[in-house]
Amino acid sequence: MEDLQTPSPPLVLKAQGSFFIGGEKSEQTRTELGGFGPAGHIAVNQMYVRYMVPQRGFRNVPVVMVHGATLTGKSWETTPDGRMGWDEYFVRKGHPVYVPDQVGRGRSGFNQALFNDVRAGSTPPGNLPNILRFSDESVWPNFRFGAKPGAPFPDSQFPVGAVDELSKQGVPDLSFGGIPTPNPTLKALSELAVQLKGAVLMGHSQSGPFPLAAALLNPSAAKGLVLVEPGRCPANYTEEQIKTLASIPILVVFGDHRDIPTGISTRASWQESFESCQALIGRIQAAGGKAQMFNPPERGIRGNSHMIMQDRNNLQIADFVLQWVEERVGKRGGAKK
Amino acid sequence: MEDLQTPSPPLVLKAQGSFFIGGEKSEQTRTELGGFGPAGHIAVNQMYVRYMVPQRGFRNVPVVMVHGATLTGKSWETTPDGRMGWDEYFVRKGHPVYVPDQVGRGRSGFNQALFNDVRAGSTPPGNLPNILRFSDESVWPNFRFGAKPGAPFPDSQFPVGAVDELSKQGVPDLSFGGIPTPNPTLKALSELAVQLKGAVLMGHSQSGPFPLAAALLNPSAAKGLVLVEPGRCPANYTEEQIKTLASIPILVVFGDHRDIPTGISTRASWQESFESCQALIGRIQAAGGKAQMFNPPERGIRGNSHMIMQDRNNLQIADFVLQWVEERVGKRGGAKK
């Protein structure tokens, strides 16, 4: 904590705070609630959102930043080595910023009923959802700090000296069977964009495609979509859906070293993910859309990792995204074309 | 969200961000990690902390605000009806504020290995920890909004129209068997106070006694202790421990309507909790200490609930706490006596 770097000048906020989007009631037994008090209803599937609105420039388009698998909104806050996160940087550049925890994780909580039912013996253990976390060892190749644990790429932009602080950002991820289908986060993101009267939706990794899905639920509120290192860009959109996406500015961002084996069962390499997004961009462009790829290595910026918002050059990368927002999305309410 | 009330003037921060305190490595199997990637180590038992440091008055004593059972640091943020939380209010009054999520909850995560072991059949379901949440129905009497669900006390200070937004703050609480003993949050709070070079430690409800325990781990870093509606004040401290606590300013805060039945198995009424704290205050005073009770009804302030930091008069209550800090704790580094 001593290493936290205090920026100057001060951060001047018109407002900050937090709230929830979505959620519904679940009726549960005393046992399902842990037995301290009477049976009844609890809120489940709500999405926690923390926000900061800058004093200067608060009429700029709001930006919603969604984290990836096994992580929380912490991804966008202070970096593992104590530098400024994208949340504050975008605020300092004049954008209201909204950082959720996905439904089922962090301050959004999860539905514990099934766990207590299994404990009590009324439900078989096999009904439990699989809960995901990534080992430190798996993170090195999968997040592309280096091909092997402890051996960073010579040009790695990730602050590998602070990799243990990234490890602490990990939380159990119940997205794979522990939350409803479709993922309530998608509707919550769409509703958040509506309540904000339009927003840029940004996803990362597992949530990389979420902005696309949220935009399809309510296209007019999605002023721009930023897909940061998405796990996969969908290949199964209908022509109608592609036409809708072609009406929205879309930016896809990938880092470097995408060709190494991830060691993860869901993809052989991040190049697969990159190519799936190139294919989607091609379809959207063919429909007249403005989707585009931001590929830093092509511009001579090397060594960016999967955690590009935490890399040492994270603000340089942010500047490209901010410039794209300025050029393609413009001010709140009025999209530039 | 439309109801969020924007204060003016702007909030001017010297710094804001987040970090982790504590944590250790746990070696886990591929199955325990959810099977997506290789076996290895993850961080567990770390404590997430979010902070805001005001530009003016940042040399004032920092205040650490810890939430209660089934809740997260959200307790101290924007109230359920969209008013300013104690986190921002204390910052606006010149105090750096640090808001953790207890180990095992929210952005601090929890250790999922046992859950995946039970799912895989290698551990009996009975080994699962009991996971606690409070039903909406149980919250009405237990948090003292009214004696029965839906029927608020005529003088209730809680914004009962927004009680569903409080419900959304609930997260599964693994404190009862799902985290190590002693609770790692206690050591983390003590370490946080040391890193801050002294802090006022504030706990609420389940964490109400935590400031006492953290102070006993490192008395010199605990510049003041604020116990807000503690579930229980310990009765088993040694004379040596009482002597230590007598060297630290201590304030206990309780709301109104403490005599109604809670409906919760751990206490018949909150008056029991109040009396346990009066007993502790008595012991500390007998040892020459400055511990004291802040009992709003005695001052004609009626209707405060267990969630006093979210009540409609939450800033009035905060003013009493701030005045106590000013008088009893003083500036960072130098305690007034």
Helix-strand pattern of chain A? EEEHEHHHHEHEHEHEH
Number of domains of chain A: 1
Give the terminus-to-terminus CA distance of chain A.
44 Å
Q: What gross morphology of chain A would you assign?
A: globular
Strand order of the largest sheet of chain A: 1-2-4-3-5-6-7-8
Helix content of chain A: 25-40%
Quickly give the CATH architecture of chain A.
Answer: 3-Layer(aba) Sandwich
CATH class of chain A: Alpha Beta
In CATH terms, the superfamily of chain A is Alpha/Beta hydrolase fold, catalytic domain
- CATH topology heading of chain A: Rossmann fold
Amount of beta strand of chain A? 15-25%
Quaternary structure annotation: homodimer
* Classification by helices and strands of chain A: alpha/beta
